[in-house]
Specification:
Blueprint lengths: L1 E2 L12 E6 L6 H12 L6 E6 L16 E4 L9 H13 L3 E5 L6 H7 L4 E6 L12 H10 L5 E4 L2 H11 L6 E3 L30 E6 L8 H10 L11 E6 L5 H10 L6 E5 L4 H6 L3 E4 L8 H8 L4 E4 L4 H4 L6 E4 L4 H12 L2 H18 L2 H39 L1
Parallel strand pairs: 2-3, 2-5, 3-4, 5-6, 6-7, 7-8, 9-10, 9-12, 10-11, 12-13, 13-14
Antiparallel strand pairs: 1-4
Length: 411
């Protein structure tokens, strides 16, 4: 069930935060969790990551030695036994706080309450391909049903803040907006001559690299970016032969994207390497970042591209408008519209000076508005307030029990 179980112990005076997620693998929410824990002050809290299914080598990005990692191996579909396993693990770990994330782990709030965890927080990080805006009645009813058990909600985007207030009925006093932070030291603009990690001869100094980093699955719409790139053969403001497409990431649509590029006769101008560990180097070798998602929370790769000094063209969904300022740091286009995406890329290609200005503005905005320190401070504030409230409630509960006992004895 667990790994690294020896890291941290019940004798450790630091309160434990148990982070319940579906799976620890490559992804925006998971990347945000790893960034948060790597930058949290170690003396404040110790942490446990509980995966309802499993974890991969992505867990090796965790830099702290005191984080315990656990896998409950949930089966596909309904698996009531996983909640029994979660209850037992929570009783063993005895965390001060349980922090569930996204709809897939919301039921964990019930299990945490039954396990006696008084401080409970739930984070909404993004949407699923089956419910791009949270409008499905089944999912909304589930959120409403569990709402009384959640002590505090964390929403990453303004869009999710509005949804939780207006559609789920969460009061403002239980709702906190915390945007993801980006490591502006690790992600920074290119200095000197651009050298990409791609195959030799793929892109020369005069070529223009249009890039993206994503999971190659339907909600990220990689095929829309492929179609937009192919469309640039018509009416591009520069020679199409100078253009290159780079999509870093793996997933079920990667092979389909490769086949479409081959069918269009432009595969030699594209590089789809799958998942990679050198994302900062990949971004620094790009000229323009594009993300065609159908739904988003707060996208880590957009933040990383901004910190890398890239202009960003993204779809006008979810938290993307919180990040991209049209005309200043990039452009926003409708989702599911490859033609509109291609037009925005054409506009960016027309002026190298505009791309440079937008990239510089994106870097400045990343440093000023999306610092890692601000994100960490936001989460610490939520954890501290929940813990203070839970600790303050304990004496009054005990006093109430004693009072009822005396009244019963006196009858």
């Amino acid at each position: 069930m667990s790994a690294l179980a020896s890291k941290g112990s019940a004798a450790d005076p630091r309160p434990c935060v148990a982070h319940v997620i579906h799976r620890l693998d490559v992804g925006g929410m998971e990347n945000g969790l790893v960034n948060l824990l790597n930058h949290m002050p170690a003396e404040r809290y110790r942490h446990a990551i509980i995966c309802m299914t499993d974890y991969t080598r992505f867990s090796e990005r965790l830099q702290r030695e005191d984080i315990s990692l656990h896998a409950l191996h949930k089966r596909e579909g309904k698996d009531l036994g996983v909640h029994r396993r979660l209850w037992r693990l929570l009783r063993e770990l005895r965390p001060a706080i349980v922090h569930t994330r996204n709809l897939a782990t919301l039921e964990g709030q019930v299990t945490a309450a039954l396990a006696g965890v008084r401080a409970r927080v739930h984070g909404e990080h993004g949407w699923d391909i089956a419910d791009l805006d949270g409008s499905r009645d089944k999912h909304r009813y589930m959120r409403r049903l569990v709402r009384p058990l959640v002590g505090r909600y964390i929403a990453l985007s303004r869009h999710q803040m509005d949804y939780l207030q207006q559609r789920v009925g969460v009061g403002t006093e239980r709702l906190t907006h915390i945007c993801n932070g980006v490591d502006t030291g690790r992600f920074h603009p290119c200095e000197g001559t651009r050298t990409g990690p791609w195959p030799p001869g793929f892109a020369g100094p005069e070529d223009i690299v249009i890039g993206s980093v994503m999971r190659m699955q339907a909600v990220k719409a990689p095929l829309d970016l492929v179609e937009a790139f192919i469309a640039l053969r018509e009416h591009a403001p520069v020679s199409f032969e100078r253009l290159r497409l780079v999509i870093v990431g793996d997933g079920p649509l990667r092979e389909q994207a490769r086949q479409r590029l081959e069918a269009a006769g432009v595969a030699q101008q594209a590089w789809l390497p799958g998942a990679r560990e050198d994302i900062p180097q990949c971004l620094r070798a790009m000229d323009l970042f594009a993300l065609p998602s159908l739904a988003e929370g707060i996208c880590n790769t957009i933040l990383e591209a901004m910190a890398s000094g890239l202009p960003v063209i993204a779809t006008d969904v979810g938290g993307n408008p919180d990040l991209v300022t049209p005309g200043n740091t990039g452009a926003l286009v409708p989702a599911g519209a490859p033609a509109a995406l291609a037009e925005a890329i054409r506009n960016a290609l027309a002026s190298p000076d505009t791309r440079k200005r937008m990239g510089q503005a994106a870097r400045i905005r990343a440093e000023a508005a999306f610092s890692m320190d601000a994100m960490v401070a936001g989460y610490l504030g939520v954890y501290d307030s929940l813990l203070d409230r839970a600790n303050a409630r304990t004496p009054s509960v005990r006093a109430g029990r004693r009072r009822r006992q005396h009244e019963t004895m006196g009858r």
